[in-house]
Structure formats: C-alpha cells, structure tokens
Input
Amino acid sequence: MKVLSLGMGVQSTALYYMSSMGELERCDYAVFADTGKEKTATLKYMHELLKWQKNNNGIEIIVMRERNLYKDLLTTVNTKGKQFASIPAYTSDKNGNKGMIKRQCTFDYKIWQVDKAIRDIYGLKFKQKTPETEVWKGITLDEIERMAHPFQSWKIHVYPFIGFKVRKKDVEKYDTKRMRRSDVMEWFNRNNLSIPEKSSCVFCPYQSDASWARLKNYFPKDFKAAIQVDKAIRNSTKKGINNQVFLHRSCKPLTQIHFAKDAPDLWNGECSGGCHT
Output
C-alpha cells in the first residue's frame, strides 16, 4: 500500500495533485494529521483540497484528529501523571546562553497519527504486525537533509522529488520526478492551482520573524492562540525544565516582541520530515 503523508504545505500538496492526476504513481490514501491548531490558511486550503478531491477523483484524504497538541500544551504542562507535550521551545541558562528543549511533537502528533491511520486502514488489532507500506513524503532536492530512515522495519519512506526509497537499513534509487521547491512552485502555476502556505502549528517555535509578523497582522486569532501557548509553557519546572520557556528565540514573551521581517527563515530546523511539507 502507498500512503501519502500530507502536511498540506507546498511540496506534499503538489505530490498529492501529481499522484491524483497520474503524473506519478497513484497512492492509495493521503493522511493529514491535524494537531489542533494548524494555521487558518492551512485549514482553509484543506477544505478546498477536499472539494477538489471529490470533483476530480482525487486520492482519498483521511484527516486524523486523535491527538490535540494545542489542548495538551494548555492543559497538561502543570498536570501530574500526564505526558509532557514537548515542543522545541527556547530557554536560557543563568549566563544567558540560549538553547531549545527536546522536540517530541513531530513524532507524537504527526508521524504517530499517520502510522495510526495506516493501521486503521488495514484493520489491525493490538500487537498485529503492520504489512510493508510505502509512506510518501513531499521533500524536495533543496531539503535533502530532511530525508530520514524510518524506525520501523515495515515502513518505506518514499521521496519522489528526491528519487529515493528509504528503508530502516538500506536505500534504493527511485526513478521519478526530481524537483526543487522552486520547480514545484512553477508546476502549481503551470497547472493554474493555488499555492498553499507553509504549513505549521500557529505556535511552532521554528517560525521566522516574518512568519510571526504575518500571523500577528493578518491572522489575529492564530496569533492569540500562540500567545496562550507561550504563556502556558513559561513555567515548566514540574516537567523538569528549570528555566523559563518561550516560543520565540529571543526568550521574550510574544507580546513584547517587535518582529524583524528580514530575519532568517528557521524552517529547516525541522529535520525529521514530518512537518512543514
């Protein structure tokens, strides 16, 4: 079985269209893992894509909402006995040295949900083995560092835009469309398809200042939700983090920052291939 991991960003959405339109092998399903606070623009595009699927015999899209990162960040940070929803937020030590805390969100709220959808499709029960399955990922040549081996032996990561199939212990070439992100953007334009925004949770710490500024100026509800998370994670001492935690790399509250629109893009910090595609 072939399952497309649909991040609802530029590359994975292009992969969805191409596979549906016959330019690539046809996947059996596409899975979008909604973490509870995807950007408003991303959710709007998702609804447009669902309409396109219905009208154009597109690959069936499964939307997974079994885990809600937004709610978990707001409600479990100071609750005993529950797993800490770890995002790569920023903190600093007493000497002012800044760093990021452990990131577990991509696996728990993106990759896990795709894996869960695959098991549901097969109708597997607890402890039943998952059959060998291809998981397609929309990562382009300019982001080749995000290509990764799967942890599970049943899973084959397929990167059509790079030209490789990657198993747990080996890699094989895959003769397909090798494309850069710029090539994908041109493909959208040639096919008169609207281009989705970069996808992410509204509170993702990997956002550039330009992205934060856009969120604040054009999507105030999204920015308000990010502020809520920023406040909720501040004191995480009960979860073993001794210093204050922030969403912004300056280690200041979002409400106090004048975002620099020309700051460097930080999207490549997400290296597991589970987000921002």
Remarks:
- The first helix runs from residue 10 to 21.
- The two ends are 21 Å apart (CA to CA).
- The helical segments are 10-21, 40-55, 69-75, 105-122, 181-190, 209-218, 220-232.
